[in-house]
Amino acid sequence: MDNNYVIEMLNITKEFPGIIANDDITLQLKKGEIHALLGENGAGKSTLMSVLFGLYQAEKGIIKKDGQVVEIKNPNDANALGIGMVHQHFKLVEIFSVLDNIILGKEPCKAGFINRKEAREKVVKLSEKYGLNIDPDALIENVSVGMQQRVEILKMLYRDNEILIFDEPTAVLTPQEINELMDIMRGFAKEGKSILFITHKLNEIMAVSDRCTVLRKGKCIGTVETKKTNVRQLSRMMVGREVQLQVKKGEAHLGERVLSIENLTVPSKSHKNNAVKKVNLHVHRGEIVCVAGIEGNGQTEFVLALTGLEKPSEGRILFKDIDITKASIRERSKIGMSHIPEDRHKYGLILDYTLQENLILQRYWQPQFQNHGFIKNNEVTKYAEKLIKQYDIRSGQGPTTLARSMSGGNQQKAIVAREIDKDPDLLVAVQPTRGLDVGAIEYIHNQLVAERDNGKAVLLVSLELDEVMSVSDRMYVMYEGEIVGEFNSSDITVEELGLYMAGAKRQGETANEK
Q: Which domain holds residue 442?
C-alpha cells in the first residue's frame, strides 16, 4: 500500500430506490493534494462524498484513513477523524450570527456558559490567517453567498479538519470570488491539508487540482493527473462523447419588440438606497439579450420586479404593449412570460412535491390537466414522461420522484423543461446553467438559441463571462443598480466587459434605442 494515501474509499456501492448512485467506486486521496471529483449532474459525486462524511452509509466497500479501516456513521465521526465538508447548499442557520454558525455544536464552555471571547479570538485569528475577512457579528441572512461560503470554510478550520471536502464550491460565486477561493485552496494544500473538490467546471480543475477522478452514471471512469490531460479529454470522459464547448448560433433576425422597461426603480431590502435605479432596456423577438454584472448589483431585484415577485417603486414594464407593472405572477405567466429563477429551491420548485407535480405547477388549472377541479393524474404522468425523455431529466423513480431527492442539475433541467414547454413569448433565464455540467450547459444553451430562432425573446441574466459572451446577441451591463453600458456581443472583449462589470468604466451616453 502507498502510505501517502490519507483517505481511501475502496469498492464503495451506495443504492437508493430505483438507482445505484455509486457502483463499486474506488477513490484515493494523497496527503497535501487537491483531488478533483468530476462528473455530470447525477453521476454520484455528492453521494460519494456524503458517504465519506457520514451522511449516508454504503451498502458495500470500506473506508481507510491513514491505512486503517474506519467506520463513519455520522458527521460527528467524520469530524473526529478530521474530515470536514462544505456542502453545495450551505448548512447555515440564517438568523444566527456568523460566529454562532461557526462554533455551533463545538462551543467552548466555561462553567456551563459559552466562552464567546475565546471562540471569537480563535475565529478572528483563523479568518485573518487565511484571508477570509468575515464579520463575526453579521447575521447570515444579511451576508452575500460568497461570504456564507467563507463561513462554511471557517466551520471546518475551527474544527481543525485536515481533510476538506468542497461540494460544488464555485457554483454560486462571482469570478473574483472564485479566484480568491482557488488561492485559499492552494494555501490549504501547501500546509499539508488534503482537499477533495467536487466540480464540473473543467477550467477550474485544470487551474487548481493535482489529480482528477471522473465518475459517469455512478461508475468510476478513471483517475488522471491534471497536468497530463486537457479540457477536451476530461469532458469526453465525463459525458462519454465529444461536447461542443462553443455555442453554435447564426445571425439574429429581430422581430417586434416584446419587452420594454422604462425607468424601472426597485427599493432595496437590505439598505436605504434603491437596488435598481431608473433602468431602461428592451428585448425583441428573435434575440438573446443579456443583463451582465457581478452578483449583488441589482440583477436579483430587477428580475423579481420583472416577474412580479417584487413591486417597483417607479417605472413601467410593457409586455407586448400591455402595461404589466402591477400584474400578478399568474397573469404574467398566462400572457406568455416564463421564468427560470436564480434560486431553484426558493422560487423554482416545491421540493416535497413529486417531479410530475412540479412540472405542472403553472398549468394544473388547464383543461389538459384537470376536470371540474380534479387533477387528471394519468394525463399529468404522461406529460411528465414526455418532458423527462425530451430533456433527459434523470430521476430514480421517474415522474413520482420527489424533487428534493434529485441532483441539483436535474432539478434545474426540470425547471427549464417546464418553462420552455409553456411556449412563452419571453423567456427570462436567470443563471440557467448555475451548477450544471458541460453536457447540460451545452444542452441548455442550445435550448436558449432554439427559442431565439423560433422567434421568441430571451432575456438572460448571468454572472458567467463566457456565457454572456457566447450566448447573447446584445447585452446590458448592470453596476450598482444602473445600466452602465449596452453593447452588441461582437463589439466587446471579455476584458473590457470585466471593467464595466467592476464599475471601472461606463458609457458616456445612454445607448441609443434600436
A: 246-336+425-514
